[in-house]
Structure formats: structure tokens, C-alpha cells
Write a structure and sequence with these properties.
This protein is of the alpha/beta class. It has 29 helices and 16 strands. Helix 3 runs antiparallel to helix 7, helix 11 runs antiparallel to helix 14 and helix 22 packs parallel to helix 25.
Length: 800
Amino acid sequence: DIPRLPSQDRSLLVPVCLPRHLCDMGGAKTAYLIAYNAGCMAGWAYALYLALTALADGGALSSTWATMGTAIILSQSAMALEMVHAATGMVRSPVMTTVMQVLSRLQFLVWIPLAPTSASQWGCGMMAISWALVEVPRYAFYLNNLVGPGGQTGTLYPIFWLRYSLFAILYPTGITGEVLTLLACLADPSFASALGGFAPLLIKAMLVLYVPASPFMYMNMVKNRKGAFKKRFAKPPPPPKAPVGAEFPEDSKGGRSTSEAGKKAFAAAIGGSGVGEAEEAAAKCAGERSWRFGYNKHITKLVRLSCESPAAGLGSAKAGLGWMYENMVYHSPDQTLRGPFGATVDKVTGSFETGAVRGGKQSPPPGYRVPYDAGWHPSRPRPPPTGPSDCLSGKALKAQAAEWAAGGIIEPDAAEALCWLSDHFDKGESLQDVYVVMIGAGSAMGPFPKLMEMGATVVAIDIPGAWGKGGPRPASAVWRRLCDTARGSAGSLVFPLSKPQSQCATDEELYEAAGCDLMKQPGEIANWLCEWQKTLPDSAKVMIGNYTYLDGELHVKLALCADYCIRRLRAARPATGVAFLCTPTDIHVCTDASDRAARDNYGSGFGSLGLEKLANALSGGKLLIPNFNAPVEAQGGKLIKYVDGLAVAQGPNYALAKRMQHWRAMIEFESGAVVSSSVAPSTATISVLSNKTFAWAYGGMPYFKYEIFKQETTNAVMAALLMHDILNLKGPKNPANRKQFRLSNPIELFSTQAVHGGLWRSPYKADSLGEVSALIYFAGLARPYLLAAGAAAAAAAAFM
């Protein structure tokens, strides 16, 4: 920011006193500010009166300061209180900007007495009159805001016009007068020794600053004027449209704050744990003032409290989802249904037609194939080959699973699940009796292609194919891809239609009729799923999973609507399993072995030189934070370990959406459902790599015992775990085996079969590695050049 020297532009840029409806002033504060602004306006008006009267009587401009100087000194000195107002929060003005702007005026109250001759030249008089002509309408503007309705349109137009127009003349006159006054000070013989000889140097420095500051601030004033007039004379906005579908509740200010809703949902979950300190912790969560950057500590507290007992874990999950169902709202498109989300969506009676596409292959290919050619790195960005002979299968797949487990990239039970599934399909088995409802079937991270390949029936829920018709990216392309994949597989595809399939004359018409709007039609989708499941044999293995993602608050809405569909299908068909992909950047209960590995790995590499502690200290504790925490002593003395991979930058809405999936998983696991919910690895998807900083950080992550998976590998591996959990009734995701796997608390479900890519066993928290990882990556790029330079220097030294 360039310091503003000509003071009149400050009066137009910084609102010293704002309206009551903006500042939320109390009565005493308002009364004080009214008196302050009125007094300052009167003081400057009196100074202006003295000057104009003297000029009218034939006085010279050079004698103006002598006439009005005392009034200016008093009025300008009173403006020093503006710094106090800003510093104490009495008005919403930036403190440093206000200080600099007020001091730029006050300096003249110091220089002029030190150089008496400067006050008797016409430039000083022009400066003083320019100041007064600016300050009178400025204080009148603020006074109008305080006693009137406030806002641009609430200000009397003459005052408004003067405030935003006088600068066009008074800026040039004021700055000219200020410069001439400063030059006159330098010309005064007595000024040379002022302030021990430093005064002339200070004035010369100030004069230099006028050169860049003046045109910049003048053009900024022009911009401000345009904005103010545009706002005052803008057409009134159209009345807000009634919300449709899932929506956040209204807050106390009439808005729909996602932060307020998120705080309350997490506070409800914390309180629902029912442990001793839950009430206090819930109150702190609800009262968090910096939710955007402070939410993570409350999620950590929630996890710790949930670990204390099975009742605490289940209670927090039910309370969190309960708050969402009772406080989020739903509006039907015709506005006939409006109210709390859960109760209102239950009243929806509509449904869909059913479409189907059958695969053209009689049976799936032999074995199970995983595309893999090592982890992703900027030096290896290409997708792995997907040909039958290029993929891992059979013994090669099992060997890679064992290697991943040995290297801490996946947990041993995840490797066992991969091996079990490989053996299962090597026997010629298929997924012909498996039905998977995929909410977000077109997701890049979803298992759709592998499920189709292995012969499953996928019930696809995705966006309406009619969206974007005629545009560059029509949604019908999603359904074309899904249907084409199904036709080339041994599986089958079922999906909702807006009209009977028999009425779709062409494939394109079918694609455009396919799909549904999850956020606006959760009730219709759930009704359709409940009707569809009645057509299945009792022996059918049914699983429903949520694979949706959108940015920000939309992710929360999607998660809630998907949860409603899951809950309804589970109620209609209790044998239905539930599936989610857990993000690695969250807080999860982990295994004792992974916690021990993280502790053992801490200090390796950087630690041998003490650099990790240095980096942590220099960054204020933000870099290279240890990736382990104090365990939670649960009921019965069991120590539960957890890993904090939460990435604060992802935001509280993302965290809430993923935590809602955790809550549903815990509730359904406790009620007897198979829950395939495993931690997936960090994956080099197109959306992630589009952010260069993520790509650079990924390039250095292997140093910290990570492997970044390519998307094709992640898809195949996580799909394999899903299939394993559906087919192997002896696995840890089946609650019938929870005693065997020591899963007394439903939150411990997430400690099983994790494919975390090394995050759990890394020595440092994921959220504290980004900058250091990027530096390591660039150091690797520079290494050959540094070695060559070193070799050249050594050769030169030897030659000399």
C-alpha cells in the first residue's frame, strides 16, 4: 500500500464512522460518535467560515493560515481520535491505514511552527481551505449515516454528491498546497536545524513519496466514485427465489450460513457422545469464532470423545446426523413441501421410470487385473497401461500387495483382502448376483468400470442427462459413457428415467432422459430405489455407496441427500450393505502397528541432522508436525490410536460432508450391516494435478514414505476391496466378526483395510508436509546441475 500524503483523499476512502446497522453500535457508543462527528464538522465549518470571511473582506490567500490556523489545529488534533476509534474496534476502519492517513495531516501541525515563514505563502492557505472544504461534507456524511437510515441511498443526495465529487478539484489544489508548504519549510532558514537537522531529511523523503502516490490515489478516488454512484443508482435486485431442494437453515441474520450450521452439527455430535466433558466441548465448538481455520481442533475433540466408549461413538454419530435431518431444510420444486429435511422429504411421493442396459459379454475375463506401473511422480505422469498382459493379476498382484504392505503403503489386512479377491476370481467366479447402487456413478474415483468388468449389476444415480443440452458439455455424455461401458462388459446397468424406456426412440434420447437431481429429488430417488429392490431375489447381495463430490456447501447437501437414500434403502432391505471411500485427509482411528511405525519413522532423514525440529520451530510449529498423538484410553482400559491427516485448507464443509459419511457408516455397522468403508490413498487425479502446488508437493512426498497412486490403480484397488467386503463374509467389515477383529467401538471400523498410501506411517502430518515436499521435489530437479557444477568447480580447483 502506498502511503497517502494528500489528506483529502482519506476522507473519501476510509469510513471513519459507519451506520448503526453496519457497526451494531450500542446506545452510548452511538451518542458519542454523533457528538464526535458533529463537533468535528462544526470545527471545520468554523475554520472554513473564518477563511471565506477574510477573503471576502479583501484578505490575501497568503494570510489565510493566520486567520483559520487555530481552528484547524484544534479540529485536526481532534482527528487523532480516529486512530483510537479504529484501534479499539469502535468503527470498522483498518488501523494502520487510518494511522498513516491521520499522521499525514498532523505532520503539518509540526512543520509549520518550526518554519514560520511557510504559513505566510499562498500555498499554505490553499491547502488549509482544501482541507476544510473536504472535511465539512465528510463529517456531514457520517453524521447523516448515524442519525438517518444509513447506506448509500439513505444519505441526502447533496451530501453524497459532495463527498464523492469534491476530490476532483480539491485533490489537485490540496496536494499542490501541501507540496508548496513543504518546500516553503525547506526554504525557511530556521528549519535547517529543526529536530536536530533531521526535519529537512524527513520532508524530502515525504516529497519523493508524492510522485508515485498522487496519481495512484487520484485514480483510486475516481474508481471509488464510480462504484459509489453505481451502487446508489443500481436497480433493486430481483426478489430472491425460493430455495429448491436441500438447503442450509436460516441463521439469525436471515442468511444461510454454512459456518453456523457446521458448528452446530459438530457441537451436536460432540454433545451426543455423552462423556463427562462433552457439554463443555460442545459449547466451545458452537462458540468458535474462527470456524474456517479453527474447525479442525473440534473434529479432533469429537474423535477423541467418540473413542471413549461404544456408546459415545454411536451417540455422536446419531446426534450429528440427527441435527442435520432436523435442521437442514427441504423445499419441493413447487414449494408445496417445505420444512425440516428429514420429515419433509419423507412426504415426497414421486418416483422414476426404470431404464436398463445389458452387457454384451457372457462372462468376465479370468482373474482380477490392476493397472500399475509404480506410483505417480511428475517424472512418471502417464497413466499405467491397461492391456491384459500389462496389468497386475494373480501372483503378481499378490506380490505387489505384499510389497505395499511391507513398505507401509497399505495395511496388512488390506493386502490380505486383495489376495483373497485375486484368488476368488482366479477360480472363475463373477459378480453376477451382486447389485451395487452407486450414488455418483460417473465419479472419477468410483468403482463403476471394475464392477461392470466383473459382471455386477450397477444401479447408477447421476445427474440428469438433459442438463446442458445443446451446450459444449452436455450431461448426456456421462450417460453415454456409462451405457457404452455396460454394453462392453459382462455386467448390467440400471438407472432412473424421466419417461419409459420404450418411448426413447434413439440412444441419445435415452441418455437425455436418464438421471436425476440428487439435491432436489432425494425423495423420488429413494422411492424409486425402494420399488426397484422389490424386484430382486432374496439371495441378491445389495450394496449402496456414495461416491459424490462437489465443492463447498454443495458437498454437504449432496452428502445429506445421499444419506437419505442410503437410510431409506437400508430400511426397506435390511440386508443391504453400505459403502464409502474415506479420504486419507481426515482423522481416523488407526492400527497399533501404524501408530508405532509413525513414531519409529519420526526423526529419520531430517531428524538425524535436527533439521525437522528447526523447520518446525522456524515455521511457528506449522511444518513437519509429528504424525502421532496421545492415544485415547477407552472404556475398559483399551488404548485407541488415531492419525490426524486432516487438511485444514480443504475447508469445514468438506470435513462435514465426509464426517456425515463416517456417522452413517458407524450407525449401519452397529445395526448389523456390512460397511465397506476403507481409507483410499492420495491419488493424482486431473482435478488435483490442475493445481501446480499440489503436483509439486506430490513430487516430494515419496521422501516421507508416501506413494501417490495413479487414478487407474486407485480405482482398481478400492473396487477390489469393495468386492471383497461384499463376497467375503469373514472380513472385518462384517459386524458379525467384530469380536474377532476387536472392533468394540464402531469408530474402529475405519482402522481396517486402509490403503492410505503411506500417510498413516509417515513421520509427519500430511497437512505439515506440503511446502517441504515441494522444496524436496525442486531440489531433486536441481540435483544433476548442482553435481555438475560441483564437479566443474572441483576440476577447476585441481587444475589451478
